């Protein structure tokens, strides 16, 4: 695409755009300022979208996906590394191990609250640069910590907490991308953005065991679990700086955030997203440990002088399913697809419980992959419901195909980040629940049973939302 000319008429990069520019008239032309700021953006304008908007949105989406991908990689590193700690000379008990697995999710979920508002404060391109640079701290810190088996647990836990920077990236990335796409394409665009990030968990679980074992002989090269990602993080920083853009109409005010917090729709969606995304990230984190405990012979498969864990399949298939959940939600409505997802998740978790006494790894893996597929589809579908509900709340007659006014779009963008933060707490809750189940009962069946019951409750909540939409004659 030809590089856009820069217009200096609108002022310096920090200039506060007038209200008229935030709600451009149909057919308004884009203007470009230094610092890669764009004024006059209106994704709902077909003329603007066809001439320049689509190409700009796609370019930003590509680099957003790459940066978010690395965020998920970093977020999941400790879930993989802990399985290899005993072989590297570390002696942590079960409770300590599950804390190392879950603390990145706890910190990442909490960081998603401030990260949600960083795009509106600094611009999407600018914050992507900063958030990508922060990933250097946990990767370098991990490499240094695991190189010494005498590193105290408190230090290990602190460095594992820094991996939460990777979890925070999702909120700012999704809040940013939602401004770039029209309502009719949000499900697919947000699904791709999220899936590109989510797949980082699978890539990390596949690549790290290979990197730390290939050519290592009897000694693990655990520091490589951190070092191998540093060059890619540097590429993401440079790519965001050179290729991404800041949208002036994405500079939301505090009122949009407060409006989102006051909306009952936000809290309902937060609950549902804990069930879908929380299950995906939580089970992704704990899956390597579950396989190592239940089927140790399948935990590390030798391949060409390296070791591969099949745990990556869960995160991979869940990630790939997410954009299809968004696309199905675009067509049939998010609530309908989410209902099916919770139903299958409950069946999948119940099937895992029934297969545990059998001791058959193929059955165990198949049932868990079913759970991962359903959670991935549910992620995309549930997330698609958020802009729909907020458009309806603003008075739009059909929130499924209309984004509402700019105020509704800003409130929805804030809600996307806030809901994603609550959902990420599932990544902390699931390992802790399963860890408690293991230490108190000696197995994981009790913890999985609690999840089946939780999915049944969430299914009922989603059915109520769908019925509400049908009464109003709209899809939610």
What are the defining features of this structure?
mainly alpha, 3% strand, 5 strands, 476 residues, 3-stranded mixed β-sheet, Growth Hormone, Chain: A
Commentary on this structure:
With 476 residues, the chain is mostly helical. It has helices at 19-22, 46-84, 94-122, 124-134, 136-145, 153-162, 164-180, 186-213, 224-227, 230-243, 254-262, 264-294, 312-332, 334-355, 361-393, 406-424, 426-441, 445-472; strands spanning 31-33, 37-39, 246-247, 301-303, 306-308. The protein has a single domain, classed as MFS general substrate transporter like domains (Growth Hormone, Chain: A, Up-down Bundle). 72% of the residues lie in helices and 3% in strands. The strands form two sheets. A three-stranded mixed β-sheet has the order 1-2-3. A two-stranded antiparallel ribbon has the order 4-5. Helix 2 packs antiparallel against helix 3, helix 5 runs antiparallel to helix 6 and helix 7 (164-180) packs antiparallel against helix 8 (186-213). The two termini are 37 Å apart. The model is unreliable at 1-23 (pLDDT under 50).
